[in-house]
Specification:
Strand order of the largest sheet: 7-8-9-14-13-12-10-11
Protein name: Indole-3-acetic acid-amido synthetase GH3.8
Shape: globular
Family: Belongs to the IAA-amido conjugating enzyme family.
Pfam family, one: GH3
Organism: Iris pallida
InterPro entries: GH3, GH3_C, GH3_M
């Protein structure tokens, strides 16, 4: 996405409004710190020599973030050097270590996405013993080797056997319910995005946090920052974002599934409450009438600025974190993997998928019903595992980066279901009112009874045996 230096000024303006709005609902946020797990990702160069990097990486590496003035409402436990460390383990370890040292000062815990916060909890589950040893001795594990990170932690590290014993006592328990408020007892809310695809993480976050509020403070994308949630302590299901008209020029394409005729774009002040629109933006950085792909429902107005509830992403089937996989991409991946089964006299008769977030990190699950000419000579486990990896190789660069560099997505899984399963799936849909003439196999499912039906018919499950190829230039 094209951007310009002045765009950071606008984004900084939006960031500067987050805490004043939050302070209307949660007093005393200037008396403590925020434990935020923030990370940069790798950069690349375009053929013309321009730097290409994720939008948040661009912000964290800018002077707006690195040289930000002191603000009592925005004191982070994480040193800037730890946030800017490109190695995900070293960055996470040092941020978690600092968060544990400052546990009584922490008033809010957050990450950009809900999935990122859950990854941090999972990291604590895996590494609490090492963290406790470092706190007990006041030293830093050799696995954190980045000199700038080690220097930034020099003023934090000190022997604290009492804190170390506390961490051991809490983290060695089998029950991790409420672990966030047990370790950071003064936490008033979680600052995470739990709208859209991130809503799938709400039950898990409630479990780990003991049910404290989740604040979705802002609405933004790589293309443009859009607006604020002016009632940030509302329930996740009630979140609405109010558009800031100075961030871009906003237009809206009415969503009408009953009409195939092209419709006229509606201006910002002319949208109607209750109606759904696709967001269209013209940005200062050069995007002209760009369709973002978000479908929004108008919920009201703040003065003359409309508020919207995020409804869905257009055409996105699967998403774990920042990845977005659409139907055509999934189809292409299945076709590529299916080629590996041809020598074994097999092919994919039907398939569907789900984003499984029951484990951390989440991963893609693809259900296959196979057509096998000779069951005694069909594809074996090794072939199906290679099919998993082949599907991953066919995914986009964001997915592969998340698998390889970030570890925010787990290995893709293929679950082979017994013959006739997709006929049962159709029968179930028809029993609930679907038309037999218009029924199409859903390429993604999230309705619990359907997932339970599919899982009850699984004959074998296979995981990708390795990470797909990825470099910063792919």
């Amino acid at each position: 996405m094209p951007t310009i230096r002045e765009e950071l000024d606008r984004r900084e303006l939006l960031y500067s409004l987050l805490m004043p709005v939050m302070s209307l609902y949660v007093p005393g946020l200037d008396k403590g710190k925020g434990l935020y797990f923030l990370f940069v990702k790798s950069e690349s160069k375009t053929p013309g020599g321009l730097t290409a990097r994720p939008v948040l990486t661009s912000y964290y590496k800018s002077d707006h973030f690195r040289s930000r003035p002191f603000d009592a409402y925005n004191i982070y436990t994480s040193p800037t050097a730890a946030i800017l460390c490109a190695d995900s383990f070293q960055s996470m370890y040092s941020q978690m270590l600092c968060g544990l040292y400052a546990r009584l000062d922490v008033l809010r815990v957050g990450a950009v996405f809900a999935s990122g916060l859950l990854r941090a909890i999972r990291f604590l589950q895996l590494h609490w013993e090492s963290l406790a040893r470092d706190i007990e001795t006041g030293t830093l594990t050799d696995r954190v080797a980045d000199p700038s990170v080690r220097d930034s932690l020099a003023g934090v590290l000190s022997p604290d056997p009492g804190l170390a014993r506390f961490i051991v006592d809490e983290c060695s328990k089998d029950n991790w319910a409420g672990i966030i408020t047990r370790v950071w007892p003064n936490t008033k809310y979680l600052d995470v995005i739990v709208t859209g695809a991130m809503a799938q993480y709400i039950p898990t976050l409630e479990y780990y946090s003991g049910g404290i509020p989740m604040a979705c403070t802002m609405y933004a994308s790589s293309e443009c920052y859009f607006g604020l949630n002016l009632q940030p302590m509302c329930k996740p299901s009630e979140v609405s974002y109010t558009i800031m008209p100075n961030m871009a020029y906003f237009e809206f394409l009415p969503v009408d599934s009953s009409s195939s005729e092209p419709t006229t774009l509606v201006e910002l002040a002319s949208v109607e409450v209750g109606k759904e629109y696709e967001l269209v933006i013209t940005t200062y950085a050069g995007l002209y009438r760009y369709r973002v792909g978000d479908v929004l429902r108008v919920t009201g107005f703040h003065n003359a600025a409309p508020s919207f509830r995020f409804v869905r992403r257009k055409n996105v089937l699967l998403s774990i974190e920042s990845d977005k996989t659409d139907e055509s991409e999934l189809q292409r991946a299945v076709e590529c993997a299916s080629e590996l089964m041809r020598p074994h006299g097999a092919s994919v008769a039907e398939y569907t998928s789900q984003a499984d977030t029951s484990s951390i990190p989440g991963h893609y699950v693809v259900y296959w019903e196979l057509l096998v000419r000779d069951p005694s000579a069909g594809p074996g486990r090794d072939v199906l595992e290679r099919c998993c990896l082949e599907m991953e190789e066919a995914m986009n660069a964001v997915y592969r980066q998340s698998r390889v560099a970030d570890g925010s997505i787990g290995p893709l899984e293929i679950r082979v279901v017994r013959s006739g399963t997709f006929e049962e799936l159709m029968d179930y849909a028809i029993s609930r009112g679907a038309s037999i003439n218009q029924y199409k196999v859903p390429r993604c499912v999230n309705f619990t009874p359907i997932i339970e039906l599919l899982d009850s018919r699984v004959e074998s499950a296979h995981f990708s045996p390795a990470c797909p190829n990825w470099t910063p230039h792919t």
